[in-house]
């Protein structure tokens, strides 16, 4: 099976530096092995999306020379696949209806889930969610960057939502169906998603899919551990500063481009990246000091703490 990876952004805003880091790492990890690199737009949560963001993300990837194979896949066009998977889980009797609101869960002090709706099945109405019953109380995997991860759930703690009360398919289900259907063998993404992985593995097992390998790159945070995100309004990256940003991204990923690459073109930088890619050099944690220098790592160029280009 050829090695196949993907970059799968949600179009909730333009690409920010943290997402560029994930896209670049995934691209290099795949291209270094002459694999296929795909792009998938995860646009199944319209309330959170921003018009034009998908196109803007694709243009930025293109401007950085991160060219993908084949057609871009849009999750919004794939509901039939998700519906099929949901029906399969219902037939397996591992999907169950849940009408608990966030407020009710909060009131009951529930972390994860407490199995309430298994004991008290809700009426069959339209605004009902579906949860996945975990069949394994424990799950573990070897992350290629973060090392061995071990999870344990008591009772129904791990039962996650796969179809939302508002009638939208949950991220967990869509991502698992698409990774399988697109033949993804390598998932490399931000570590903010690492704890979703065991739920996705449970889904893969139940649906009879082959598991991809996982690698989670660190999410850039400030000293307080707050991550850069579209939510805290990290500005979009400036494509005019492409070489500088790419060079900084390579360094933050622990790669060590030689000094003579300081004036290299975009193409030369990407080629160097592919030829010298070392996943084992990617740090597990990446914190930036207020002046933009990584904490506990060599002093690098001045990326702003919000992830924007140097000013
Ligand atoms: Zn419930």
UniProtKB/TrEMBL annotation:
InterPro entries per UniProt: Glu-Q_tRNA(Asp)_Synthase, Glu/Gln-tRNA-synth, Glu/Gln-tRNA-synth_Ib_cat-dom, GluQ/Sye, Rossmann-like_a/b/a_fold
SUPFAM superfamilies cross-referenced by the UniProt entry: Nucleotidylyl transferase (SSF52374)
Keyword terms of this UniProt record: Aminoacyl-tRNA synthetase, ATP-binding, Ligase, Metal-binding, Nucleotide-binding, Protein biosynthesis, Zinc
Residue positions binding L-glutamate: 6-10, 42, 171, 189
One Pfam family here: tRNA-synt_1c
Domain of life: Bacteria
The Glutamyl/glutaminyl-tRNA synthetase class Ib catalytic domain, residue ranges: 6-239
Motif 'HIGH' region location, chain numbering: 9-19
Motif ('KMSKS' region): 227-231
Cofactor list: Zn(2+)
Residue positions binding Zn(2+): 98, 100, 113, 117
Similarity section: Belongs to the class-I aminoacyl-tRNA synthetase family. GluQ subfamily.
HAMAP family per the UniProt record, alphabetical: Glu_Q_tRNA_synth
Function as written in the Swiss-Prot or TrEMBL entry: Catalyzes the tRNA-independent activation of glutamate in presence of ATP and the subsequent transfer of glutamate onto a tRNA(Asp). Glutamate is transferred on the 2-amino-5-(4,5-dihydroxy-2-cyclopenten-1-yl) moiety of the queuosine in the wobble position of the QUC anticodon.
Stated name of the protein: Glutamyl-Q tRNA(Asp) synthetase
Lineage of producing organism: Bacteria, Pseudomonadati, Pseudomonadota, Gammaproteobacteria, Oceanospirillales
Gene name in the database record: gluQRS
